[in-house]
Structure formats: structure tokens, C-alpha cells
């Protein structure tokens, strides 16, 4: 039975970069830390592994907004935290992360009403308090 749940990618951007993110157009990403919130209700572990492969340049299919960011050489996944309880809590979790950072408008949320699912943050420390466990 596939694992289902919600996750946070803890992302490091080593230097300021401008990326063309599909329909969103060009976005400037400041050097620093970002959290991307996503969910997978069919196959959580393969989804997380796909993100890691994308970040390492081992996967080149660009499907989601996050793929555009992760494929950049100056971008890496520092860690991944997840909740594998089977519920889709992506928007709830994005709202919680929003309290700790600045949104990248419309990023990763084309199928909901959230402002964003990617946030520029000071640190990743608060994720443990959200009841997430570390995957990577």
C-alpha cells in the first residue's frame, strides 16, 4: 500500500538567481532558505525521491513549478520533512509555513486558492514543532 501525505522541502539557494518558471514567467530568488510545501496521495516516497533526483540533476522532466527551481545548479535540498498520515494537508501546512516567511506569489499553488506553497524563511527549525518527521 502506497504511503500518502504532505511534505516540506527545505531548500537552499546559494546565490541570487532569476528563473523562468513556466507560466509564472521570470522570478527572482534571493540567496537563502526556502520551504516548499507539497503532497502526494498516491506515492509519497517516490515523489520525495523524484524531487531529490531532480535536485541532483538525475531527472530532467519538468512538470511542476518546483521542478524549475530544483533543476538549477545553485539550488539544493537541505532536508525533507513529512507527515505520512494519509491526509492532504498541503494548504493547511502552507498556511502554517506562511507565518514564518515571505511567499513567492502563486508558486506551487495553481490548483488551490493559497497565495503560495513556496516561502522564503529565516530557518527550518520550526518544522519540528509542526509534527513532521524527517525523511532526508
Structure description:
The protein has 136 residues and is an alpha+beta fold. It has one domain. The protein is 20% helix and 32% strand. The strands form 2 sheets. Strands 6-7-4-1-5-8 form a 6-stranded antiparallel beta sheet. It is globular and about 40 Å long. It starts with a strand and ends with a strand. The model has no long low-confidence stretch (mean pLDDT 94).
Major β-sheet profile:
6 strands, antiparallel
Helix-strand sequence: EEEEHHEHEEE
Helix content range of the residues, please?
A: 10-25%
Q: List the uncertain runs.
A: none
Specify the structural class: alpha+beta
Number of helices: 3
Work out the number of β strands: 8
User: Beta-sheet strand percentage?
Assistant: 25-35%
Kindly report the spatial arrangement of strands forming the biggest sheet. Answer: 6-7-4-1-5-8
Rg on CA atoms, Å: 14 Å
Average pLDDT works out at 94
Keywords:
3 helices, six-stranded antiparallel beta sheet, 136 residues, 8 strands, two-stranded antiparallel ribbon, alpha+beta, globular, 32% strand
Please describe the topology of this protein.
Layout: E1 5-13, E2 17-20, E3 26-29, E4 32-40, H1 44-55, H2 65-70, E5 75-83, H3 90-98, E6 101-103, E7 118-121, E8 133-134
Antiparallel strand pairs: 1-4, 1-5, 2-3, 4-7, 5-8, 6-7
Quick overview:
With 136 residues, the chain is α+β, with helices and mostly antiparallel strands.
Amino acid at each position: 500500500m502506497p504511503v500518502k501525505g504532505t511534505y516540506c522541502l527545505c531548500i537552499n539557494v546559494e546565490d541570487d538567481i532569476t528563473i523562468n518558471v513556466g507560466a509564472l514567467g521570470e522570478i527572482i530568488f534571493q540567496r537563502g532558505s526556502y520551504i516548499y510545501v507539497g503532497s502526494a496521495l498516491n506515492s509519497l516516497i517516490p515523489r520525495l525521491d523524484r524531487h531529490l533526483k531532480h535536485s541532483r540533476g538525475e531527472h530532467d522532466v519538468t512538470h511542476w513549478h518546483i521542478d524549475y527551481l530544483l533543476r538549477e545548479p545553485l539550488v539544493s535540498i537541505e532536508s525533507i520533512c513529512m507527515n505520512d498520515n494519509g491526509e492532504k494537508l498541503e494548504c493547511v501546512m502552507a498556511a502554517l509555513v506562511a507565518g514564518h516567511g515571505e511567499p513567492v506569489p502563486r508558486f506551487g499553488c495553481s490548483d488551490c486558492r493559497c497565495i503560495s506553497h513556496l516561502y522564503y524563511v529565516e530557518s527550518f527549525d520550526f518544522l519540528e514543532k509542526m509534527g513532521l518527521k524527517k525523511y532526508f
